[in-house]
Amino acid sequence: MKLSPYTVVMALTLLAHTTFAQIKNSKLATVDINGNCGMCKSNIEKAGNKDNEATVVWNSKTGQASITYDATKTDEDAILKRIALSGYDNERYLAPDEAYSALHSCCQYERTQKSDDTAVAPAEHVHGASNTAAKPTDAEPAQVSAATALDKLMLPYVKLKNALVDANTQQAALAAKELDDNLRVFDSQALPAEQLTVWTKEGKNLTQAVATLRAAQSIDLQRQQFSKLSHVLYKFVKAGKKSGTIYYQFCPMYNDGKGAHWLSEKSAVENPYYGSEMLSCGKTVETL
Description:
- Pfam families: DUF3347 (PF11827).
- InterPro entries: DUF3347, HMA_dom_sf.
- This is Copper chaperone CopZ.
- The chain is of the alpha+beta class.
- It has helices at 5-17, 38-48, 76-85, 97-101, 136-165, 169-184, 193-215, 219-239; strands at 26-32, 54-59, 64-70, 93-94, 121-122, 247-251, 260-264, 283-287.
- It folds into 2 domains: 5-122, Alpha-Beta Plaits (2-Layer Sandwich); 138-287, Four Helix Bundle (Hemerythrin (Met), subunit A).
- The strands form 3 sheets. Strands 1-3-2 form a 3-stranded antiparallel beta sheet. Strands 7-6-8 form a 3-stranded antiparallel beta sheet.
- Strand 6 and strand 7 (260-264) form a beta hairpin.
- Helix 5 (136-165) runs antiparallel to helix 6, helix 6 crosses helix 7 (193-215) and helix 7 (193-215) packs antiparallel against helix 8.
- The radius of gyration is 22 Å and the shape is elongated.
């Protein structure tokens, strides 16, 4: 038995309404999202869903998704941008070519438009939207917001780095807690496209590294986790707007001669892996 389009839309709407109890100030939208199969459904919904904020239910037969979201926390643009970053073109945003190419072969739907390799691009046919280029003043608030968002990560990170230089386990734990707390309320939607792409790929790894570091009970364990944290945070910092110069530095001695990097707010080397034992061991390998 074939279902009419009206029946399918009604079913999606009823299913979406079951999320209202979990999502406050809920609004409902129906949007078109490209895709092919059950795996696409899983990918799209995983990218769009966010606890207590947004729920996406996508239908592979109609290509339509029912989105329920808390209007005080997010909007359709933010949800559809996340979905585009996972590889799926939709009525507002085109997926980066890199994200589309990473999809399983069965999920690679036929594309009618393409974006560039790294950024989410606005779709050409967006209802009620203009395709004219944004004025320079339009971009300025987003850039300031992005720098502020990055500062919320870098400021406690620098405190953590300095605590490790001083071999102060207690202060390192406090800085890790501050960083962890900031990550919990971090607004990734304030980020520019390239940084948001990195956040989508690395945000989970960053959160996990901070949580593990926070749980570390010794200076040695804190330094080990700091190395992993620095590796992930570097990718994020490099991709986006910064409010000041950041130095990417390297110690060749740490980790049995394998070496380790860290980020610093100053050019002078103060080694967080050895502290006073080898304070000046290392060098700046990149200025961000």
